[in-house]
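Re: weekly structure request thread

Next one in the queue (197 aa):
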Amino acid sequence: MPKQKNTKQKIVDAAIDLIATQGYKGASVRKIAAAVGIRESAIYNHFRNKEEILKKIITEIFTTPFDFKNLEEKARRGKSFLREFVVAYKLISFDKKKEKLFRILMIELFQNETLRESFLTEFHHKDIQQISKALFVMMQEGLIRSGDPIFMAQEFISPLFYIRLHLSLLRIDAKATTPISSQFEKHVDFFWESIAL
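Done, posted below.
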């Protein structure tokens, strides 16, 4: 059984590498099998089809690194809660596997309806909804100004997404990313100053 799991993960990893460079259409089952070093028919022991491989990759794309357990308690820490979230976001931005997943997202978002639906629901529910709940707690605790917590959450997360995109574009062309890396923390400071009482 562990061998099957290992092979299944190798298939997913090979598919991630291929899709990140060639797109979903360019990453054929034959190419994925060749990258793993197995026969094409062996892939079907683990996945029904290429779409199922993509669905597995999509779950990895939208896995959030931030632990939202005890959200209310964490939110009472105000700015340090936001900083913790940004540090987790920054870590995935510099992770090589997550970088490939982000590239897949950028390549396929306008071509794949399944991915679009996942982006809209997962991104909104897992991050924006949770951050908006935390911001609402901060409002109740008198840490920040009152306002629309969903809008504030969008204003908080959107620049992070842009910074991550900028970082990815620099890395594709092997350009220095050092100037960008400090923008994550600067964003927290700027955002906090705009909402704090």
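The chain has two domains: 2-55, 62-195. The chain has eleven helices and no strands.
Next request, please.
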